[in-house]
From TrEMBL:
InterPro entries referenced in this protein's UniProt entry, alphabetically: NAD(P)-bd_dom_sf (IPR036291), SDR_fam (IPR002347)
Keywords assigned: Oxidoreductase, Signal
Name the UniProt record assigns to this protein: Si:dkey-174n20.1
SUPFAM superfamilies: NAD(P)-binding Rossmann-fold domains
Signal peptide (from-to): 1-32
GO MF term set: oxidoreductase activity
Keyword Transferase: no
Keyword Magnesium annotated: no
Domain of life: Eukaryota
A family per Pfam: adh_short
Gene3D superfamilies with a match to the protein in the record: NAD(P)-binding Rossmann-like Domain (3.40.50.720)
Family, similarity comment: Belongs to the short-chain dehydrogenases/reductases (SDR) family.
Length: 295
């Protein structure tokens, strides 16, 4: 099926859109930036596939997205980013089932929790970086076949509070710092992906959606959840607002000129100097290849 996405500039990019979108599956798959992005993409005519480990939440999200977007072209597939075998199985099934992949939005995330994935990586590093890293690499041939295509990876401005330690990439001691490192890894990943795919029709963007009201506090105590609900209500933006920069990088003609860029509020933003180090980005890519056994 030939489907067009309407860009924010009002032009129709000539892309046959099959949008693979990751909801915040670990933070409540039926809400958040992911669902609002999916609604917007479905309204633009995209075929939307959400990937989620909780099939009940995925089915509920699909129903809600269909209802809000007035589109029946929304589907889900099972995927657990905390399990690399699940990532490989998902990619195998996806490639067998789907002939196109035009936009991949890496939106799943874990907050800072002291827990481990099924492959014994810290949950933050394993899900937020390694899961997306393996998935994107396995789907990269299909993205290249469908060029021009895009990869949008969500990150957070909290990247600025930590640097990577290559002696301990799997850092899992202080939850907030663990989260910050995983978000910095997302930025390096997006930059190196842009370098690797330069001239091959695939562009890459890192997006900070802002501090968004969501259900990420479900992993913490009741008292902490109550406190954060008040803070989020007072200072955080809605998920609909948070989704706008993700949507912009997915469909805007202007964004296409800034592959490897970091976006905030629908415009390129300046990173701290250490987060623009191409040598570190390449080193992380090579280390990640070894960790997920791509080499």
């Amino acid at each position: 099926m030939l489907i067009f996405l309407l860009s924010s500039s009002g032009h129709k990019p000539h892309l046959n859109m099959n949008l693979l979108l990751f909801l915040f599956v670990f933070l409540g798959g039926n809400s958040g930036v992911g669902k609002d992005t999916a609604v917007s993409m479905a309204m633009r005519g995209a075929r939307v596939i959400i990937a989620c480990r909780d099939l009940d939440k995925a089915e509920k999200a699909v129903r809600e997205i269909k209802f809000k977007s007035h589109s029946l072209n929304v589907f889900h597939m099972e995927l657990d980013l905390a399990n690399l075998r699940s990532v490989r199985e998902f990619c195998k099934n996806f490639i067998q089932r789907e002939k196109r992949l035009d936009i991949l939005i890496n939106n799943a995330a874990m907050p800072g929790v002291l827990d481990c994935t099924d492959d014994n990586f810290s949950m933050c590093f394993g899900v937020n970086h390694l899961g997306h890293f393996l998935l994107t690499n396995l789907l990269l041939p299909r993205l290249r076949e469908c060029a021009p295509s895009r990869v949008v990876t969500l990150t957070c401005s909290s990247y600025k509070y930590q640097k990577l330690d290559f002696q301990d990439l799997n850092y899992n001691l202080l939850p907030f710092f663990t989260y910050c490192r995983s978000k910095l890894a997302n930025i390096y990943f997006s930059q190196e992906l842009a370098r690797i795919t330069e001239g091959k029709g695939v562009t890459s963007y890192a997006v900070h959606p802002g501090f968004v009201q969501s259900s990420w506090t479900c992993h913490y105590s009741v008292l902490f959840r109550m406190l954060m609900q008040v803070i989020m209500w007072m200072f955080f933006v809605s998920s609909e607002i948070g989704a706008q920069t993700v949507i912009y990088c997915a469909v805007s003609d202007e964004a296409a000129k800034h592959s490897g860029g970091y976006f905030v509020d629908c415009r390129p933003a300046t990173l701290r100097p250490f987060a623009r180090d191409a040598g570190v980005a390449k080193k992380l890519w090579e280390a990640s290849e070894r960790l997920v056994k791509l080499v």
